[in-house]
Design brief:
eight-stranded antiparallel sheet; alpha+beta; single chain
């Protein structure tokens, strides 16, 4: 495939992943407890968390180099990246616009205007994978407009209600001499850790071909996205997250750009239920995943990964 071949079809997908003895997505407003639906007890993982893992995988594999740079990354200063786009295009944001149609004077020194914004937005889409995939707000600082990404994800929700456990942990050391003196040389630091014994989560995604045309999201980008969704937990290990991994990825490929069926009908064709309701699930094998192919209408092809 070529990076110049843009995505021409609509795609919808379902991803199943699980966590064992870990905290898949702590809530900072709740003391970093695993996110939960207060009414049903089902676990939640934000779309932002999942996008972060895709970004991290692509950044590691492609060495964060254009055209696979990552715009939203740890310790990034987004306005500097926008300013760099203008510098790369040889646009001086303190001088009058080069295009007379944009006016003889710059409306706001340090900010792009008119066709300059379109050029900067296109440049950023070409060089940053996550902008042309998920979109971005680029109106801050030098201003490169706004990009609506062709790929969108829902929150992930656990198939069953989860149990959030709290554990006391001990470190056989202290950080300062003052702490050591206070403890009389015992030198221990106590802490808390939150885990989910086991949870199988389900998230849904959507890929719009018309929006892919606007951002330049290509067939190569699409293949990289599938790879990232399949492997996004493999290089995101930590003691806090326990054992996490993608279990299933179901891809619905439409024959047309606008789609051949409603997404609800497609997602309803995949059901996940516990094999034995009498005991709690602790492994992926405790669940049965079934696909009712007769519910998939003509014009849609289902591909199963993993």
């Amino acid at each position: 495939m070529s990076k110049d071949v843009l995505v021409q079809k609509r795609y919808d997908f379902v991803i199943l992943f699980d966590v064992k003895d870990g905290n898949p997505n702590g809530d900072p407003d709740a003391g970093n407890l695993p996110r939960i639906d207060a009414e049903t007890g089902h676990g939640l993982i934000t779309d932002v968390c999942l996008k972060r893992k895709v970004r991290n995988y692509v950044g590691l594999k492609m060495d964060d180099q254009p055209p696979y740079g990552i715009f939203v990354k740890e310790k990034a200063i987004l306005n500097k990246a926008i300013e760099q786009a203008y510098l790369s295009l040889n646009i001086d944001l303190n001088e009058p616009p080069s295009d007379p149609a944009d006016g003889k004077k710059r409306n706001k020194p340090g900010q792009g205007q008119g066709k300059e914004i379109d050029r900067a937005r296109k440049f950023l889409c070409q060089n940053f994978f996550d902008i042309r995939t998920f979109g971005a707000v680029l109106q801050t600082g030098a201003n490169a407009g706004q990009v609506r990404g062709p790929v969108q994800l829902t929150f992930a929700r656990s198939v069953d209600p989860i149990v959030s456990l709290e554990h006391s942990i001990t470190r056989m050391a202290v950080a300062t001499e003052a702490e050591a003196e206070k403890q009389g040389g015992d030198n221990r630091t106590m802490g808390r850790k939150f885990t989910v014994p086991y949870g199988l989560y389900r998230a849904h995604g959507f890929i719009s071909a018309p929006l892919a045309k606007q951002t330049g999201f290509s067939e190569d980008d699409l293949e990289l996205l599938w790879e990232a969704l399949e492997n996004m937990f493999e290089h995101d290990r930590s003691a806090a997250r326990g054992l996490m991994g993608t279990r299933k990825l179901y891809i619905f490929e439409h024959e047309s750009m606008m789609g051949n069926a409603s997404v609800q009908k497609l997602f309803d064709s995949i059901t996940v239920k516990r094999a034995d309701e009498r005991k709690p699930a602790r492994e992926f094998s405790d669940y049965q995943v079934s696909v009712e192919t007769e519910k998939i209408p003509p014009g849609v092809t289902l591909t199963e990964i993993l």
